[in-house]
Amino acid sequence: MMSITLTAQKAPQYEKRTFVSEKGDTLLYRLLAPEQTLKGLHYPLVLFLHGSGERGADNEKQLTHGGQMFLNPANIEKYPAYVIFPQCPEGKTWVGTDNSNMLATLKELVDSYSALPQIDEDEIHIIGLSMGGHGVFSMVSRYPNLFASATPICGWAKDELLPLNTKTAFRIFHGDNDQAVSVESSRSAYRTLTKNGNVKVYYTEYPGVGHGSWYQAFAEKDFMKWMYSQRKK
Questions:
Q1: pTM of model > 0.90
Q2: Cα torsion at 53, 55, 61, 67 (round to 10°)?
Q3: CA–CA separation, 153 vs 49, rounded Å?
């Protein structure tokens, strides 16, 4: 009888990495790369911004919400991409008057990957929840031509800073019973973006759902499909 030995393939994992900006600011992050990259093909880049509860210096907690979604074998096979989960240091936020360099540091991090030949510059996406949702709105406001899609979940925005006619497609999520971040913040952002001439703006509101509306958002059957179908051109 012939003996067959099966070798288990190593499951995809997030690599621990550290980024240092030109100004010397350090940002811990995790990177998930495609299982294999084919020469001549270009791949999307996804930036995921966590909420305030995942801040720290362990380079772990930022994967708490959303990290597993990108490890789903079906998503890995269907949507090969480079996925970055930076971790905001304790005591800081993605945006704010006392953290003026944070958005610039995130932009440098994205630029360091978008410059790679295997990255498709027309398929750079950003997702964020709660504090990270605020970061999503702020990043697109400051860099309106950088992202193909933006997915802010239970976030908030300064409406006066939201961009005019950006090429970025927005998909906004919020629970109407959110006691941490008022649902009106997402409603207002949706109205402002639409008024500003942005035609690809979609808003989903979950009745009776509180602050953790990312669970419902991630469970949307077309969550990945919609995001990866967006291009700047």
A1: yes
A2: 80
A3: 10
Position 212 in a domain? yes
Nearest to 167 by CA among 193, 130, 128: 193
CATH number, domain of 107, equals 3.40.50.1820
pLDDT digits (tens, 9 = 90+) for 93-150: 998 555 457 999 999 999 999 999 999 999 999 999 999 999 999 999 999 999 999 9
Contact 222, 230 (CB under 8 A): no
Each as own residue / partner, the long-range contacts of residues 71-79 (CB below 8 Å, 24 or more positions apart, any chain) are 71/11, 71/12, 71/13, 71/32, 75/224, 76/12, 76/34, 76/35, 78/224, 79/44, 79/224, 79/228
140 to 104, 106, 147, 223: CA distances (angstroms): 12, 12, 7, 19
Q: What total number of domains does the chain contain?
A: 1
Torsion of CA 28, 118, 80, 20, to 10 degrees: 0
- Does residue 1 sit within a domain? no
Asked if residue 7 is part of any domain, the answer here is no
For residue 27, what are its two tokens?
Answer: 């940002």
Range of the domain at 91: 15-228
Q: Are 152 and 120 in contact (CB under 8 A)?
A: no
